[in-house]
TrEMBL record:
InterPro entries: FAD/NAD-bd_sf, FAD/NAD-binding_dom, SQRD. Coiled coil: none annotated. This is Flavoprotein reductase. One of its GO terms (molecular function) is oxidoreductase activity. Residues 3-292 form the FAD/NAD(P)-binding domain. It comes from the Archaea. The lineage of its organism: Archaea, Methanobacteriati, Methanobacteriota, Archaeoglobi, Archaeoglobales.
Length: 380
């Protein structure tokens, strides 16, 4: 029997598992193949929903689902934390002492926010990149009526690269709706020499910031936060005061990747950009945020990568050539407020393509928020 093991119960892990179950249904039923998914939590969080939760436009119940509910019944689910991946022995060690052997491994361990990596941020700032942080920010935004709000990107890469832009546009409209925009200064900061990594996106966003009276600073690299003075101190020697700091905290890969020696110092796994195999490991694939690839750490990327990995593993098991390749495909919606949105798509060779922000794309984004769970189940 061939054992396929997937570590990670987020979007990348569940989609890959479900695609594999569809492609190998007969082999699983004949007990020639098994698929096991290891997740350290019972519920999956639809992270793009956090952007709406902070404005009280989505509730927790809408963005949390049992991982078991999302998986094909032919997939075995183990709820446990993986503590070590032993690539030499082809096995995964769990915190409960169990060892799971594999013939094929899919690393889908994702990324995590590490606010503790920025001195003073835990006490001096807010963020919306996990559920607890988003819930705290929701309460703060409901109270905030006057002062300076700083949206600060504190490191690259980070999950959902366009989310800092989206939240800035949505803050502008949120404060307008509540009649206090004239009393609120909005400042967006980014660590490189433009407001986004991709020049085509940066040019459009900068123009839209100017139209809305949103201030921005580039080459802005925070090194510490002073919670008492409410000041951001930067590598460039600046001190930026704030009344409300909304940070995009530093990100790291999963601790199990670091502890297993499979990644770089931040926990990103060196990955072949086309085959999605972990470098130097023929039977280990990497999907989603866990890779070190120069692509967005976004759900769409995980989706497109999962298709390639599932196709190639299934082909190998069936004795067919694994010829599927990933070419950097990504697609991201960008909310420009509460009523209009645009989107971008790109790949390794194609720069981002835009359409003018409009209401139809905004409603498409809201519709996808509702349909996401079908994607996680491999049905969309």
């Amino acid at each position: 029997m061939k054992n396929i093991v997937i570590v990670g119960g987020g979007v990348a892990g569940t989609i890959t598992a479900n695609y594999l179950a569809m492609k190998l249904r007969e082999e699983i039923r004949e007990k020639n193949v098994s698929i096991t998914l290891i997740s350290d939590r019972e519920k999956q969080l639809y992270e793009p929903g956090l952007l709406y939760l902070i404005f009280n436009r989505m509730e927790e119940s809408e963005i949390l689902k049992d991982v078991k509910y999302l998986l094909d019944p032919l997939i075995e689910l183990k709820i446990a934390r993986a503590t070590k991946i032993d690539a030499e022995k082809s096995r995964v060690e769990l915190e409960n002492g169990e060892v799971v052997n594999y013939d094929y491994l899919v690393i889908a361990t994702g990324s995590r926010v590490a606010p503790e990596e920025m001195p003073g941020l835990v006490d001096g700032g807010h963020w919306f990149y996990n559920l607890d942080g988003a819930k705290r920010l929701r309460e703060e935004l409901a109270r905030f009526k006057k002062g300076k709000v700083v949206v600060s990107v504190m490191g690259i890469p980070h999950k959902c690269p366009v989310a800092p832009i989206e939240v800035t546009f949505m803050l502008h409209e949120f404060f307008k709706i509540h009649g206090v925009r004239k009393d609120v200064e909005l400042l967006y900061t980014y660590p490189i020499n433009r407001v986004f990594t991709m020049e085509e996106v940066s040019d459009l966003v900068q123009k839209m910031f100017d139209e809305r009276g949103i201030n921005y600073k580039t080459f802005f690299n925070p090194v510490s936060i002073d919670p008492e003075k409410k000041v951001i101190e930067t590598l460039e020697g600046e001190e930026e005061p704030y009344d409300l700091l909304i940070a995009i905290p530093p990100h790291k890969g999963s601790q199990v990747i670091i502890d297993s020696g499979l990644g770089d110092r931040d926990g990103w796994v060196p990955t072949d950009r086309y085959t999605l195999k972990a470098e130097g490991l023929e039977n280990v694939y990497v999907v989603g945020d866990a890779t070190n690839l120069p692509v967005s750490k976004a759900g769409s990327v995980a989706h497109f990568e999962a298709e390639v990995v599932a196709e190639n593993i299934a082909a190998e098991i069936k004795g067919l050539p694994p010829t599927a390749r990933y070419f950097g495909k990504a697609m991201c919606f960008i909310e420009t407020g509460f009523s209009e949105a645009t989107y971008i798509w790109f790949d390794y060779e194609t720069p981002p393509k835009f359409v003018k922000p409009n209401k139809f794309i905004h409603w498409m984004k809201l519709a996808y928020n509702r349909m996401y769970w079908l994607t996680a189940r491999g049905m969309l």
